[in-house]
Amino acid sequence: MSTPMNRTPLNADSLSRRLAAAGYAHVDVVQSTGSTNTDMVRANPPHLSVVLAEEQTAGKGRLGRQWVSPAYSQVICTVVVELAGVKPASLGLVPLLTANALATAVNEDVATAVKWPNDLLVHGRKLAGILVEAIQITPTPKLAIGFGLNYDLERPELPVEHATSYTLEGGNRSREDLIVVLLTHLLEAVQRFMSMGGAPATVLPRYRQLSATLGTQVRALLPGGDVLEGTAVDIADDGSLTITTPSGHATVSAGDVEHLRS
Hints:
Blueprint: H1 12-22, E1 26-33, H2 36-43, E2 49-56, E3 59-60, E4 66-67, E5 74-82, H3 94-106, E6 113-115, E7 119-122, E8 125-136, E9 142-150, H4 175-195, H5 204-210, E10 217-221, E11 227-235, E12 241-245, E13 248-252, E14 256-259
Parallel strand pairs: 1-2
Antiparallel strand pairs: 2-5, 3-4, 5-9, 6-7, 7-8, 8-9, 10-11, 10-14, 11-12, 12-13
């Protein structure tokens, strides 16, 4: 098969076998889709169903930002999880849990940090983004955990100047091997989170270790257009970010956070 820049398509049979051995229920690899998250939210498949796309034409990130890429150049994935025993109040931790898992996997060969709430950074450049969407909240929370990771984009292909890719940073796993490592870590994190009833202690200590945001001067762009500047000092039990400002402490649970240069 001819592919752009001789990139290699995923082997769906091999991935299905390897991810089934890791514990996933069903794996689908599609050539192209608008958004893997949209597809999974609409289809409402069983727990631990996975879809991977070779190309995404209408992907979206947090705050509705567009997320697109050349074919075969990224890991584009959505996993459906049913979080039995986890209360809705704990669901704000799932994006952080996902960031922990993906960063831990990538850290095996590329030093990676997390930017609140759920971007992966390498030397301050964005490697991956995460978007978690609810399929249902009750009676059992069911979520679509989506992420896109730049695999072998070359510098002229990067969507923005402050982005990077796994291979540009020295990563040498094949795309299939990287997917297996990422999803193995994600499943382990989800299972631990469920076994502990969504306890913050299963997420926050590791997230704080990986955080590139804590201790940094930040600007938070809040829903409604308000702007908050200060120092990011902690992550609350619900996953929100605590910022110290000249007028005191403020908590940010939604919005976009920029790291300011010192």
